[in-house]
Amino acid sequence: MMNRKPVLRVNAKLLIPAILLFALYVQFHGDFGPGGGFQAGVIFASAFILYALIFDVNNARTAMPPWVMRTMLATGVLLYAGVGVAGMMMGGNYLDYSVLAHDPLHGQHWGIFLVELGVGITVAGAMITIFFTFAGQKR
Amino acid sequence: MTPHLPVLQVVIPLMAAPICVVLRQATAAWLLATGVTWSAFAISLMLLSQVMDGGVISYELGGWVAPWGIEYRVDPVSALVLVIVSAIGSVVMPYAKKSVEAEIAEDRIYLFYTMYLLCLTGLLGIAITGDAFNLFVFLEVSSLSTYVLIALSHERRALTAAYRYLIMGTIGATFYIIGVGMMYMMTGTLNMADLAQRLPEVAETRTILVALAFLTTGISLKLALFPLHVWLPNAYAFAPSVVTAFLAATATKVAVYVLIRIFFTVFGGVDVFVGLGAGKALMLLALVGMVAASVTAVYQDNVKRLLAYSSVAQIGYMILGISLVSVTGLTGGIIHIFNHALMKCALFLVLGAVSLRLGTVRLQDMAGLGRRMPLTMAAFVLAGLSLIGVPLTVGFVSKWTLLQAALEKDLWLVAAAIPVTSLIAVVYIWKVVETAYFRPVPHGAAEISEAPASMLVPIWIMVFACLYFGIDATWTLDVARSAAILLLGGAP
Fold first, then answer.
1. Which residues contact B362 (CB under 8 A, 6 or more apart)?
2. pLDDT band at B492, cuts 50/70/90?
3. Do A71 and B11 touch (CB under 8 A)?
4. Best label site of A125, B71, B275, B297, fewest CB within 10 Å?
5. Concatenated DSSP letters for chain A?
6. Is A96 within 8 Å of B18 when comparing Cβ atoms?
7. Do the Cβ atoms of A88 and B22 come within 8 Å?
8. How far apart are CA B188 and CA B205, in angstroms?
9. Chain A 39-58, residues with CB within 8 Å of chain B CB atoms
10. Which ipTM score applies to this complex?
11. Is B49 exposed, middle or buried (0-12, 13-18, 19+ CB in 10 A)?
């Protein structure tokens, strides 16, 4: 059906890489400008949702199989909690980033960087999972 | 690792939950969850002994100093709640394997353990945190996982029950956060100890009054105080057996703990009970709840629902103890949190075993069950006696303490309500006992065997705990009393 809508298809193809790239920018530039893990995760997921809308949900499911989403959901949380444990191992309290690097400033930077990455991964996984679950309602 | 125990208490189950998702294999997830719950139990015992010896433990997350950072704060009250939650959480695990295999589809079992661990994380987190907003976060973690746990049941009605609980629970949590927001507006702080110091100055303002109203209503929804209990009977009756046993013993208890925390710690410097009249209101609702829910329990046909209504009545006892605002009353309320957790867990575990063998927990189907599952039903009788409050069981200890507290204040009517509701408990427990022991096994009933050992052992651990802490209540009373004294220290 979508073969009859070349404008949508071409534009989506152009947009999707840009959306993914913008998500990564929001993610990794989040500590200098507006943004962060949650926003980046949602933007990242929206690329997949757009793909599913234009090129059929089943194709999107092939691109993002359930095991990948499950791993994303779990990895993000583990990364966040793991950073906390790492801080504890290196002599600080749980989630104390200051001890993660040679000086507190870099430590805080690394800590927030990794924690936000964890948030981003889990949020992207959750958003895509929610969309796929609702998209699968009819069958 | 000792200084990090408070955070490990929460982080270990939190990290185990996503690992279960990755494992995806039922037995592996069960093994992990069992190991994790038992280590959480060990940690909570260590924390309790540290607190009883050396006083309050404070842990600053991320190294940010309280009141700016999030503080975990363990005192006798929270340590006792941690022990209750993690003890129930771990004893239920060996039982869970067979019960869950029978009640939940194979490919969803790993999800069950994930949600179970998340729920445990949330409940432990609520008990340990010293930050009012952090408490909300853990409240949501535990509630959201609870909705999923209930909905995982094979009963279709569980979906509506879970949905109704979701709506009510969300309203409760929203009210709580509105209350916290108003307190933050007036004081600029979220740390409970800091709030306790700053609230008396602004206690007379309307904002704080409204905040208190929102907090009380929100938490009362969560703890199923009559008449806000309507979500509870169906949620308990249709949830998987393990979930019912775990939730009945922990979730509402933790909510009672939150109420105690808010009233005695956060509003410790404000005359909430007499000056603002919360004492009378709570006492009235507790008394009506005790009587009304007990009477409703008598007319239930589904034994799980029967016990769920009895839970609503028992929550009344806890709230009654709190509303008396005396050391004895609060001791009674706190010790009943512990004691009721033991007996309700035992009773619901028995019903899980019955449902595994019989496939139903309706009263008429349980005819003659005392002869077909003797060990299981004997446990029901003993735990039932405990629920009634027969001497030498835990039920007696808490009811006796509450009775003393009521008499101390010359509240004769309140004192009378305690034996009266116990008599109603005799009626509904007797209904089950009579059916199980004095009715003949129906003709043509399928041959059924006793419950498997993996389920009997946890049931009997709980029953023995009911008897042990009923005969030697020194330890539990000591902890509850020191908790009560600590809580009342800040009140006028």
1. B301, B302, B303
2. very low
3. no
4. B275
5. -GGG-HHHHHHHHHHHHHHHHHHHHHHHTTTTSS--HHHHHHHHHHHHHHHHHHH-HHHHHHHS-HHHHHHHHHHHHHHHHHHHHHHHHTTS-TT-GGGGSSSHHHHHHHHHHHHHHHHHHHHHHHHHHHHHHHHTS--
6. no
7. no
8. 15
9. none
10. 0.89
11. exposed
CB contact under 8 A, A88 and B21: no
Q: Where are the alpha helices (DSSP H) in B261-326?
A: 278-298, 303-323
The tokens describing B151, both together, are 């909905």
> Which H or E element spans position B71?
strand B71-74
Rounded to 5°, the CA angle B259-B163-B429 comes to: 65
Instruction: For residues B465 and B346, give the distance between their C-alpha atoms in angstroms, rounded to a whole number.
Output: 9
CA distance B328 to B316: 16
Q: Could A81 and B61 be called an inter-chain contact, meaning their C-beta atoms sit closer than 8 Å?
A: no
Helix (H, G, I), strand (E, B) or coil at B455: helix
CA distance A1 to chain B (A): 35
Question: What distances in angstroms separate CA B221 from CA A3, A58, B176, one per listed residue?
Answer: 53, 42, 10
Chain B, residues 52-91, CB within 8 A of chain A, namely 59-63
Cis peptide bond N-terminal to B391, omega within 30: no
Convert the pLDDT of each residue in B161-215 to its tens digit: 999 999 999 999 999 999 999 999 999 999 998 998 888 888 888 999 999 999 9
Tokens standing for residue B99 = 């019960």
Q: Which residues pair with B362 in a beta bridge?
A: B302
Q: Which of B18, B21, B61 has the CB atom closest to A94's CB atom?
A: B61
Instruction: List CB contacts (< 8 A) between A71 and chain B.
Output: 22
Q: Which of A74, A85, A92 sits opposite B63 (nearest CB)?
A: A92
Is the pLDDT confidence value at A139 over 70? no
In tens, the pLDDT along B436-474 reads 888 888 877 777 888 888 889 999 999 999 999 988 888
Note whether A94 contacts B7, CB cutoff 8 Å. yes
